[in-house]
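Box 3.1 A note on notation
Throughout this textbook, protein chains are presented in two layers. The first layer is the amino acid sequence; the second is a token string describing backbone geometry. Keep the layers aligned when reading.
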Amino acid sequence: MSIRTQKGKEHLEWSKKRAFEYIERGDFEGAWSSMVSDLSNNDELKDHIAIDLGTMMMVGGHLNTKESMKKFIEDFE
């Protein structure tokens, strides 16, 4: 998915920053919930393919460390 507008890019960066705050506190579920909530509030980002992928990875236990969650969120584009 390619983010087309500057507003979309700024919203994504803001969403990542908020998620990173949760990650630093060790709250990986909170980080993911924050990310999904923030992206869902933006028309350009609400259907981002990585939302479904990340949710499946969370349920499967693949985003349960600081490193794995941070890397996944950093790679959002």
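The CA atoms of residues 54 and 72 lie 8 Å apart. Helices lie at 6-24, 28-40, 49-59, 66-74.
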